[in-house]
Design brief:
Blueprint: H1 7-25, E1 45-52, E2 55-62, H2 69-82, E3 98-105, E4 109-111, E5 123-128, E6 131-135, H3 137-143, H4 147-158, E7 170-174, E8 176-180
Antiparallel strand pairs: 1-2, 1-3, 3-8, 4-7, 5-6, 5-7
Helix pairs in contact: 1-2
């Protein structure tokens, strides 16, 4: 499903993600206030990335969820900040340097040729032999990798496969709506 978020929806999700992280870090009870925007009660794939001083400190997400977007975003923000095994958990003294990026995931489309994949626009998802991996489009923008490098790193770094396993993998592309609070 394609969700079209308005500026106020994005702002509300970013505020919710930040307050969820702060509540967990500061041992506060959550406010319990639910978003009133109907859009945020819809279901959509979402990834939440957290940064400290512009360095990635966590990124987790789901392509599909049975939870409303606002709830999934809140839970993923906490997980990205404290449970991404690749990074140390966010600490209280890092709150002032914390920034949040949310990526709404649009439906995946299978591709048959690498020519269909533009890493400047598309995220990539690959699956082979029960292993899978993905990179959001921001990865290509930040690393400067071309489509072949993206696929090689996705196969090796994310899916735990050989560097060239992407050549025989099931490949999917997807677009995102990315927004942040920095």
């Amino acid at each position: 499903m394609m969700i079209k978020l308005q500026k106020q929806d994005k702002k509300k999700l970013l505020m919710l993600a930040r307050s969820s992280i702060e509540d967990k870090l500061l041992n506060r009870k959550t406010s319990g206030l639910l978003p009133v925007q109907e859009t945020l009660h819809q279901h959509a794939g979402v990834f939440v990335s957290v940064y400290v001083a512009k360095s990635l400190r966590g990124c987790l997400g789901h392509f599909e969820t049975a939870k409303p977007l606002w709830k999934e975003t809140s839970e993923l923000a906490v997980s990205a900040a404290f449970r991404d095994y690749r990074f140390p958990a966010i600490s209280k003294n890092e709150l002032n340097d914390l920034s949040i990026e949310i990526s709404i995931i649009y439906p995946m489309v299978p591709i048959l040729s690498i020519a269909e994949y533009n890493p400047k626009i598309h995220g990539i998802y690959l699956e082979k032999d029960g292993n899978s991996g993905t990179f959001l489009p921001q990865v290509a923008q930040k690393t400067g990798w071309d489509s072949t490098e993206m696929l090689r790193h996705c196969a090796h770094d994310k899916a735990g496969l050989s560097w060239d396993a992407w050549k025989n993998a099931n490949l999917f592309i997807y677009e995102t709506d990315v927004f942040s609070d920095n």
